[in-house]
């Protein structure tokens, strides 16, 4: 085992955790990380509580926003202007629901990655897996940082500062919200600050859902790519050895290993 592999194994406990750590960071705060046999009772309860809290915050933003479009906005331009931010929360809620419904499939894929790290023991093959794991981590981390940063800045600009409007001959400074809410007195404090805080949190949940789905796809795809590269290396080694080795039993066993691994990667 190379020094790079030893360092990562000492730091993370095992190499498979290095591959999925960023996914855990994104999904655990919103209760979307799969529950496994090793999950403690406290972690299971915490995950369920986080799920309920996340749905409450999300619906607290989505429902008043929908009512605002349906019952308050009469100008089509204002409706479309409100629909833009609201669509982020709606799509985020859909992503969140899909992540929760597909927890078992996500758990299966994560266990698949952990098993692959246990099965592959050759140092050269582990280096290939590590290279693809690093790629998956970097892309997932960049996606999460970009989405969270962009949404946070947008909410900050749209909700934390007053806007100047003209009503007749008067000029007034008023508060606004990232997603307009129906019948809430947003011009008074602490009402505005409370609603703005809930919209910040719900925006974080929506962005984490999208970033979590993308990061899972990235990590799983990069891991599968690494497994295919390893399988190609095995095929090349088999062809080169076949010209020198006359042991038919050894050849049959090697072919069986390659075929089984190919089927495993395809699953």
UniProtKB/TrEMBL annotation:
The protein's name: Uncharacterized protein
Keywords: Membrane, Transmembrane, Transmembrane helix
Native organism taxonomy: Eukaryota, Metazoa, Ecdysozoa, Arthropoda, Hexapoda
Parts of the chain that traverse the membrane: 49-71, 138-161, 200-222
Domain of life: Eukaryota
